[in-house]
Amino acid sequence: MVESARRATSDDVPRIVELAQLLRAELGPMKGGAVWLLRDAWPEPLSDAYAALVDRDDASVVVGTIDDVIVGYGVVVIETLRSAARLGVVTDLFVEAEARSVGVGECLAEAMLTVCTEQGCIGIDALALPGHRDTKNFFERNGFTARALTMHRDLPS
Fold it and tell me: What whole-number distance in Å separates Cα of residue 26 and Cα of residue 19?
């Protein structure tokens, strides 16, 4: 079994969309997931959103594979800060449940870190929903630490 990651191509978009739908199904019901879907998740139609991301110069879409079969994906967008410094922002990182804990996520994270280093970023941010302990632990194992906590309060509609 060989785990790896590579830059996505337009031919990968249908599979990325399938994985993005699984990501939405997993995160949507979690604490913070409803607002994540409305604010942070890429907009529908997902095929258009991910096709555009694959072509952007300020973003990188990577796919994680086991024996050349795509089982995960990640997206990092390069933001230019007010100081002109650059910051990588991971918007998506997902590996199918059956393919977790074998190194695919680490390959994806390393690929995105490489992109950010090559782009001269001062750092890289990633979001973990509250209560999603596996995601928090994954990022901490890969050298990430919390730099901010977003607090939220629902209001009556």
Answer: 11
